[in-house]
Amino acid sequence: MIHKFFQRIFMRNSSTANTVPVLRTILRKEHCISRNQISPGALKVTVVLQQAGFSAFVVGGAIRDLLLGLEPKDFDVATNATPEEVRALFRRSRIIGRRFRLVHVTYGSEIVEVSTFRANYPINGSMEINTESHADQHGRLLQDNIFGSQEEDVMRRDFTVNALFYNPATEEILDYLNGYEDIEAKRLRIIGEPTQRYREDPVRMLRAVRLAAKLDIQLDEETAVPIGDLAPLLQNVPAARLFDEMLKLLMSGHSLACVLDLRMRGLHHGLLPMLDVILEQPLGERFITLALENTDKRVQEGKPISPGFLFATLLWHEVLAAWNKHQAAGEKPMPALHLSMVEILTLQRQQLALPRRLDSIIYDIWTLQPRFLMRAGHKPFRLLEHPRFRAAYDFLMLRCESGELDMEVGQWWKIFQHADTATREAMLLKETAPKRRKRNRRRKSAGTTDHKKATSPI
Ligand code: ATP
Ligand code: MG
């Protein structure tokens, strides 16, 4: 007992203070969170659970954000009730997840995520790779459904700043791992032995990058160091989960900072493999920087973001390079573009499972680009009527602003789309080739590129 006590004191003061939970209660008068900052749904859920004899706390990102003066995105609750016990207490609730079972409780328009305290799977020594059936050969946990105590739950969370428990009834914060101190010091520290924790779930490396940018805090050195070496582990993460995480990162309002940080730490290889090449060309770098800056501004202004548009921008310069290559090899412009689009999206899908529902917007944005150069006859009018005109036009403006296209094209469309019919007619450029010849050429090219029809998803 005494030995354990000294060991705990010792551990707390050492550099591995985040490996043994020691409770510190932060009283209401010592912190800045008040009960009325907690969402009505999360408050209700904790009250109902506590009245039924369970313990229940608001945890994770919400408490961290409130302490940092940010507005939480959502409120999560942790409890010692099992998912079935939670489910029985709330009429509008359902159990979700397989790898990690939890309960979604609906309260008005709010959904509160309620998770049962978990224990970490025992791993034999920090550097040893766990080969039990709950982990893969790299140590990645395949499920996380062993319930445990609150202390155990603290240890299986990712970062100390995410491991604070707030009890709305007492308005106290329970801090087992100096997370409060880390928030004050603006330090992001992984819980436990960093290498082992990244092996268990390599997505934590992406979360580290996203949270550091979002919260404007520094990665602690021990937390940061292994990331470079462990980056290849992302290849073992299911592509769908990587996509979800990548989307969170891109839609965090800090996408530019995140993407640059991913690249600096070598984490982009398994996500956007060609990012290096693109960012090394001034045009590509300018294009991606502008696109991400725009995205961040929109998120910060509370405007909606289209994931399809985002991925269309991130992959555009790869498509351009392939397009040029196919044309240089003798392919006609449109078939060459179609081939390139399919090629790049197929390649990208090997890393991130871009959902098929994004295909149509990505393809539309790309295939409409050459049509912006056709400014004679009926074509500009038809383009204006395309349901994806607005997205394709925003994309065109990025191309112009980055210097890839002459700004004159963008300016023309800017005026043309809002002008009256007479002005539009006057703006049209002269036809460059006789119509008959063009039609023949089109018919011919359609006949000679059957393979295009076979591979093009458009
Ligand atoms: P935000 O909601 O701003 O994205 P968050 O920290 O709340 O940030 P969630 O994905 O909502 O992120 O996760 C809720 C909590 O669950 C986290 O605060 C953390 O304690 C825990 N958690 C999430 N992902 C992991 C993970 N990969 N490994 C360990 N714990 C995690
Ligand atoms: Mg959250």
Automatic annotation (TrEMBL):
Domain of life of the native organism: Bacteria
GO MF, any single term: RNA binding
UniProt biased composition (Basic residues): 435-445
Renumbered residue ranges of the record's region Disordered: 429-458
Record-annotated Poly A polymerase head domain positions: 56-189
Biased composition (Basic and acidic residues): 449-458
Top EC category: transferase
EC number(s) per entry: 2.7.7.19
UniProt keywords, alphabetically: ATP-binding, mRNA processing, Nucleotide-binding, RNA-binding, Transcription, Transferase
Recorded catalytic activity of this chain's protein: RNA(n) + ATP = RNA(n)-3'-adenine ribonucleotide + diphosphate
Pfam family, one: PolyA_pol_arg_C
Domain Polymerase A arginine-rich C-terminal: 330-443
Catalytic site: D74, D76, D158
UniProt GO BP: mRNA processing; polyadenylation-dependent RNA catabolic process
Domain tRNA nucleotidyltransferase/poly(A) polymerase RNA and SrmB- binding positions: 218-277
Protein task: Adds poly(A) tail to the 3' end of many RNAs, which usually targets these RNAs for decay. Plays a significant role in the global control of gene expression, through influencing the rate of transcript degradation, and in the general RNA quality control.
Family that this chain belongs to: Belongs to the tRNA nucleotidyltransferase/poly(A) polymerase family.
Protein name (record): Poly(A) polymerase I
Organism: Nitrosomonas communis
